[in-house]
């Protein structure tokens, strides 16, 4: 009787230990819809650059994980701070405050605003001449002439008023 009770308690403890270990071993990954990094498809699965990278890392490291969806990055940061999720794979600005609170990886995608134009093999003289005779440059020159004309008119008017009151007109 005692031995049967011992085996029953031991079996229940082993079963509980397995469930606790399974819960601890599953990483909770916080994500939100942020194309092209995290894209939610029509069938409520996720794909994108970060998803593909994370799934490759998890597969090669033999990690168990589950996604938990949030509406924005602020929700994810709060959950990370309260340790309700283990990590996020969404793009996030790295600043001093976040570096103090969280462990950050090296960014794999660094971007800034840029403009792409076709390469034209033109000489510097032709570029200079085309810039001088461009519509935008001519508008700036006309605006500058207008401002000088208005300022000159007011100076002439002030001079005409002061000289006409100080001088005597002879007819």
Structure characterization notes:
There is one protein chain. The chain is mostly helical and 171 residues long. 54% of the residues lie in helices and 11% in strands. The chain contains six helices and five strands. It has a three-stranded parallel sheet with strand order 4-1-5. The protein starts with a helix and ends in a 5-residue tail after the last helix. The relative contact order is 0.08.
What's a concise summary of this model?
With 171 residues, the protein is mostly helical.
List the helices and strands and how they pair.
Layout lengths: L1 H24 E6 L7 E2 L5 E2 L1 H13 L2 E6 L3 H9 L5 E2 L7 H6 L22 H9 L2 H32 L5
Parallel strand pairs: 1-4, 1-5
Antiparallel strand pairs: 2-3
Key features?
11% strand, 6 helices, 2 domains, 3-stranded parallel sheet, two-stranded antiparallel ribbon, 171 residues, elongated, D-Maltodextrin-Binding Protein, domain 2, mainly alpha
Order of helices and strands: HEEEHEHEHHH
How many distinct domains? 2
Largest sheet: 3 strands, parallel
For the record, the CATH architecture of the largest domain stands as: 3-Layer(aba) Sandwich
User: How many beta-strand elements?
Assistant: 5
Provide a count of the helices.
6
| First-residue to last-residue Cα separation | 141 Å
Task: Tell me the name of the CATH class of the largest domain.
Answer: Alpha Beta
